[in-house]
Design goal:
five-stranded antiparallel sheet, 2 domains, alpha+beta, globular, four-stranded antiparallel sheet
Length: about 210
């Protein structure tokens, strides 16, 4: 973890959160916060990618969600974090206290609106994740995941590896690899190397997502 020199900060995110907290850089694989840690801070991704993970009682890892540029994370209903947050790639994160938006502060309305939007987005993604796990075949899970990822990031590139995808989708890494190969063989998705892809049959993917 590194505090970023203000002189080196990117010009993005000047409003409404700029000045509320500090920018930090986390190396790939570094903990941003741990499972069951006090949830007294909020986080906004400026660059890179973050994953939230939880170790289950039997030792298995569950991935809660992935967060990318402009996403906010660390929102909790209780006093502690149910999931840990880790840097999926080298990332820059704005860290601030929820109470930093004091009444009367310039931009306070926009800050509150952004916090509300982040909360509703988190709830919606959680709902979609539950539906994905409960209603789709392995092929549909992987396909809809690629569709969702492309919509969120604006391009087809995997920031995560096969094991991360498996732990998020409730599948084995072998199943994920087979499903990716099948999607390409059926002309639904085209891959360029291990990470880059293009959606070909978006209509089919959207039908799966709406099923």
């Amino acid at each position: 973890m590194t505090l970023l020199d203000p002189a080196l900060q990117s010009p993005r995110h000047q409003e409404p959160f700029e000045g509320l907290g500090v920018r930090m850089v986390f190396a790939r694989g570094e903990d941003i916060y741990t499972q069951d840690e006090q949830a007294d801070l909020l986080y906004r991704v400026i660059s890179g990618a973050v994953r939230t993970t939880r170790i289950m009682g039997d030792g298995r890892r569950q991935i809660g969600d992935f967060y990318f540029r402009d996403d906010m994370f660390g929102l909790e209903c209780g006093p502690t974090h149910r999931f840990a947050a880790e840097a999926l790639t080298t990332c820059e994160v704005l860290v601030f206290k929820p109470g930093a938006a004091l009444p009367g502060r310039a931009g306070d309305t926009r800050i509150q609106a952004a916090l509300w939007e982040a909360t509703t987005q988190e709830l919606e993604r959680s709902r979609e994740h539950l539906m994905l796990l409960g209603r789709h075949t392995a092929l549909e899970r992987v396909g809809v995941f690629l569709l969702s990822l492309s919509r969120r990031m604006g391009h087809g590139e995997l920031a995560m590896g096969r094991q991360d995808m498996a732990d998020y989708l409730g599948l084995t890494i072998e199943t994920v690899s087979r499903m990716l190969s099948q999607l390409q063989a059926e002309g639904v998705v085209e891959f360029f190397g291990a990470r880059r892809y293009r959606l070909v049959r978006t209509d089919r993917l959207m039908a799966w997502a709406d099923a």
